[in-house]
Write a structure and sequence with these properties.
Radius of gyration: 23 Å
CATH architecture of the largest domain: 4-Layer Sandwich
Largest sheet: 10 strands, mixed
Number of domains: 2
Strand content: 25-35%
Number of strands: 29
CATH superfamily of the largest domain: Ribonuclease Z/Hydroxyacylglutathione hydrolase-like
Length: 484
């Protein structure tokens, strides 16, 4: 490798959210029914036209139902944010089908996930998913300092509550609070969010489990000062690993609960989970809504005729103006409509003029956002040019470095002079020009352009990080690529 041009730039941006509400401008949320397929997905449509996918379906069947029943009929031809809650197939397995139906990755803005190339156990992430998001050049990891929060218009916003550390790093990052570093599984690395509009709040946690739920609940109720109206039940109504505890439900205090479930072999939704919800939701019909029956007949399964329950076998639509909300279904032949009149123009559970508090970070050093490195593609010929861009936020002084991991445990470190000397995995030199101090977020800045020349074919990994006075800050980001 030679002919290296290196330059760095920093950019800062401010993000402010108004809490004023215009009743004529609605926020709409669709909880997607799988139509016989497996997987979970929720669509959020802001009054400003912003479209967000929370999880990305589990395969072609659900992806087609999403496109045919929700996206196309509503004239949705661009998705601004597609968020992978975590890397299980029922959360990302249909993204390639959605992209195909939409007309390619050019119809998408940002693909948010937690980064990395393996799951919590070290097993590879789906190659189909990884190749799609990496080759798009739009893969990113959301920050929890508010800079990644999504503006939905008219004061509505999606706030990120948690995001797992990449690869096998045993940590779940929490907004404004200390990381959770024990009891962490692949599920407990889920990205969780709170959708807020006026006095309305919708919680979505993907497959977040007990340790993560207990960490984000006070963020919602204490730091942000919110009360949840509708809770999307975590992990399809499971009750393992401390998930969906009565304490969590009581803290969040939902009036209505949504369970995304399908024909499964895990006993979802669990009877114990539904029994706990019965103690928290409004004691009225159709307040615990499941999209499909679930694992019918298993001893742990929650029967459909339990109090306050309804199975729709349809997509569910939630519309709100910030003062009240209406829960209904997307019409189709078959399934069950929501008929409870109290779910039409239901008042929100807190005044819409209450401002949303800004979390106060705990004492000590501010959290370091993960470094995200992206390449312009994931497969190169020996005559190609690799363009490396980065997203990061770090407030302390640092020195950046980039290295290429080659087969056989060899590392090549990119220097500011353009050389690529060999090093070891723990080798601390040489670094790029530094130390630097950004003090705010930087997004999509070009780190390097490298012209390939005579590079041996094979599999490589682009790695990078920040080095401070006490070592690597925030871990090492990596992206696999091949030379053909």
């Amino acid at each position: 490798m030679r002919k290296i041009l290196l330059f760095m730039a920093a950019a800062a941006s401010a993000f402010a959210v108004s809490c004023s509400v215009s009743p004529a401008q609605n926020l709409t949320i669709y909880c997607v029914w799988g139509n016989g397929g497996s997987g979970t997905c929720t669509v959020v449509k802001g009054s400003n036209g912003t479209i967000v996918l929370l999880d990305e379906t589990g395969g072609a069947t659900e992806a087609n139902a999403l496109y045919n029943d929700i996206l196309a009929p509503n004239g949705i031809n661009y998705i601004h944010y597609a968020i992978a809650g975590h890397y299980d197939g029922d959360h990302i397995g249909g993204l390639d089908n959605i992209v195909s139906r939409m007309g390619g990755t050019g119809k998408f803005g940002t693909f948010y996930d937690r980064g990395g190339s393996v799951d919590d156990t070290g097993d590879p992430i789906s190659a189909t998913y990884l190749n799609l998001v990496n080759s798009s050049g739009k893969r990113a990891t959301p920050s929890l300092n508010g800079s990644s929060d999504i503006d939905l218009g008219s004061g509505a916003v999606i706030r990120f509550l948690s995001v797992g550390a990449p690869d096998t790093v045993n940590a779940l990052h929490i907004r404004g609070r200390a990381d959770v570093t024990s009891g962490i599984s692949e599920n407990d690395k889920s990205i969780s969010v709170l959708v807020t509009y006026g006095g309305f709040d919708f919680y979505f946690g993907s497959d977040l489990e007990g340790a993560g739920e207990q960490a984000i609940a006070p963020v919602v109720t204490q730091d942000l000062g919110r009360n949840v109206d509708i809770l999307h039940v975590d992990h399809h109504g499971s009750d393992t690993n401390g998930i969906n505890s009565l304490t969590f439900f009581q803290t969040m205090g939902p009036q209505v609960a949504m369970i995304s479930v399908w024909n499964n072999s895990n006993g979802h939704p669990r009877r114990t989970t539904v029994e706990r919800l019965e103690q928290v939701v409004e004691p009225l019909p159709q307040r615990i809504i499941r999209l499909a029956p679930g694992d019918v007949g298993k001893a742990t399964w929650a029967p459909e005729d339990m109090p306050y329950c309804l199975t729709t076998n349809r997509h569910v639509a939630i519309a709100t103006d910030g003062n009240s909300y209406t829960v209904s279904t997307v019409p189709r032949s078959g399934g069950n409509d929501i008929t409870e009149p109290g779910l039409t123009n239901h008042p929100v559970d807190q005044p819409s003029n209450i401002p949303t508090a800004t979390p106060i970070p705990p004492p000590g050093p501010p959290p370091v956002c993960p470094l995200l490195l992206r390449m312009n593609k994931s497969a190169f010929s020996s005559s190609d040019t690799i363009v490396i861009t980065a997203n990061a936020c770090v407030t302390s002084s640092f020195t950046p470095y980039i290295r290429f991991s080659a087969p056989g445990g060899i590392y090549y470190y990119l220097t500011s002079a353009g050389a690529l000397p060999k090093g070891t995995a723990s080798g601390g030199i040489p670094y790029l020009k530094g130390p630097l101090s950004i003090g705010s977020d930087v997004n999509d800045y070009v780190v390097a352009r490298i012209s390939f020349s005579g590079v041996a074919p094979g599999s490589y990994v682009l790695q990078g990080g920040f080095v401070g006075k006490s070592g690597v800050i925030g871990g090492i980001a990596d992206s696999p690529f091949t030379v053909q």
